[in-house]
Amino acid sequence: MGKPQDITPEFGKLRSFLWPIHRYELKKLLPMLLIFFLITLNYNILRTMKDTLVITADASGAEVIPFIKVWFMFPGSVLMAFLFTRLSNRFSREQVFYAIISLFIGFFALFTLFLYPNRDFIHPNELCDRLQPLLPEGCKGLVSAFRNWSFSLFYVMSEVWGNIVLSLLMWGFVNQVTKLKEATRFYAIFGVGINSSGIIAGWLSVKMSQSIFNPNIPFGSTAWEQSVFFLMATVVGVGLLIMVIFRILHRSLISDPAYRDSNESFNSTQSVRGRISMRDSFRYLFKSRYLCYLAMIVITYNIVINLVEVVWKHEVNELYPDKQAYNLYMSYITMIMGVLATFMSMFVAGNSVRKFGWSFTAMLTPAILFVTSILFFGSIFAKDFIPDAIYALSGMTPLTLVVFFGSLQNVLSRSAKYTVFDETREMALIPLPADSKLKGKAVIDGVCSRMGKSGGSFVHQSLLITFASITGSMPYLSVVLFSVIGVWIFVTFMLGRQFNALTSKSPEAFTPDLDEGKSVEIELQEQPA
User: Fold this and answer.
1) Could you tell me what percent of the chain has a pLDDT over 70?
2) Whole-number Å distance between alpha carbons of 405 and 365
3) How far apart are CA 23 and CA 88, in angstroms?
4) pLDDT exceeds 60 at position 516
5) Which residues have CB under 8 Å from 401's CB, separation 6+?
6) Distance CA 45, CA 205 (A)
7) How distant is the alpha carbon of residue 214 from its chain centre?
8) For residue 392, what pLDDT band results from cuts at 50, 70 and 90?
9) How far apart are CA 464 and CA 297, in angstroms?
10) Who has greater pLDDT, 262 or 126?
11) Closest alpha carbon to 452 in 19, 121, 159
12) pLDDT exceeding 90 applies to what percent of the chain?
């Protein structure tokens, strides 16, 4: 079998729009597509369940989320990123993949078989009952996070699954073995696999949330506990399947000389060249204005999405206080999100980059969040001004209308995130040298995303302590929200200028902006990035 040529034959109009893939590329694309599907299938199941567990727990609510993200999530993310860099220094990329996946699978199995069934015994309810009156009312979320510590830990591991497994492990691997020419065609298709998993995950969660208690099943004393067991068994099984497919991918593809470039050591059985550390990664990040812009985009996105989601989940919990009802509603949202995101992956993401360029496509996500935030917060503030007769004519209560606009925002913004945002973020890394990608991505995806979420949670936490409730802090929260969106749009514009300069030049060299006007020449070669 000869080496695949870089010269791409012309596709027909329909095929170039829907499936711009050559037959020889299927051996490379299909296993990656399936792994992406399975990783995000787990992520969607875990995302719905983690919110249900912590928000509907005893003496809890949506106000617990900011405290979890500040006091649990950020340290956990830093620890996992540190673990990733340490493992990368000692083991091959393939071995690191298996080790991290096994760590997650082991925890979810432990939670299902031991922590959750014994929650009443291991949770310090009596201590927290004595502690709550001694603290300000706004600290209720902090006490709840400590009271239900096993749920808080589950929340952390579920959230970090997306950052570590999807972003660092899988996207990091894909960026290493995908050429820029392939990325403009492959990444939109990966988006279809990633986002269609939400449809299946939502369907599974809906079916299991609607199930009734079965006394013949030797687990759980309620229908909800049995639903937890089956959903977590699915997560563990899918995790094992991911490792099997990843192994097949290495044996059938990585060892094939037809897919190796002579200028690139494509042998992933070797450890990462040179030792990397979090300190070196941060130092490298701060020296490059290009990487700093990319880090700021990730940080601002996560601040914005965290600010709006906590408010929305608070409103949903008001409307659906029951565990199964809350999980059922969120599962429907996941299904709708999966349908829309799949549509955007097929018809918007890749075609937008090819026709309108990186900058326009990257601007879509902040624009969507700006418009939908106006609708969502406008419906919240309008409750005190719109007469009840108007709500009666619409057939909706004020709370129902707020939840509707919040759900609309969540569906649109998350769909954009999983398509145009992720695609443009990953494409921005491809032209950079291997060291830049490895070090920059480790910090941006492993730490900066957590910094953004923790930053948004810190804003929530500060406002909760000051105003004692999410409702009381709403006006100040909206000011912060729109200010951060403005920064996000500006940074995206600046990064777009540099990215366009990088990719529009001949593949001889590019000089990205560095601190104090210095520049470093980066060689770009037509080889796996």
Assistant:
1) 82
2) 17
3) 33
4) no
5) 379, 391, 394
6) 7
7) 34
8) low
9) 26
10) 126
11) 159
12) 33
Give the pLDDT confidence of 322-378 residue by residue, as tens digits: 888 899 999 999 999 989 888 887 777 767 877 888 889 889 999 999 999 999 999
Distance of CA 174 to the CA centre of its chain: 16
Among residues 106, 105, 100, 94, which one has the least CA distance to residue 247? 94
| Residue 149 dihedral angles phi and psi, to the nearest 5° | -60, -35
Question: Mapped to the 3 state alphabet, what secondary structure does 252-271 carry?
Answer: HHHCCHHHCCCCCCCCCCCE
In the CATH hierarchy, which fold is given to the domain comprising 22-264+272-517?
Answer: Growth Hormone; Chain: A; (1.20.1250)
> 274 pLDDT exceeds 80?
no
Packing angle of the helix pair 74-90, 434-443 (nearest 10 deg): 150
Kindly state the tokens that stand for 3. 């080496």
Structure tokens at 110: 């432990």
| Statement: residue 46 has pLDDT above 90 | yes
Tokens matching residue 219: 């687990």
Phi-psi domain of 60 (left: phi exceeds 0; alpha: psi -120 through 50; beta: other): beta
The owner of tokens 């700006």 is 370
Rounded to the nearest 10°, the torsion over CA 283, 285, 289, 295 is -140
Bridge partners (DSSP) of residue 288 are 514
Close Cβ partners of 480 (under 8 Å, ≥ 6 residues apart): 307, 459
- Amino acid identity for residue 67 in this structure: F
In angstroms, the CA 414 to CA 418 distance is 6
Amino acid 164: pLDDT: 86
Mean pLDDT, the chain, rounded, equals 81
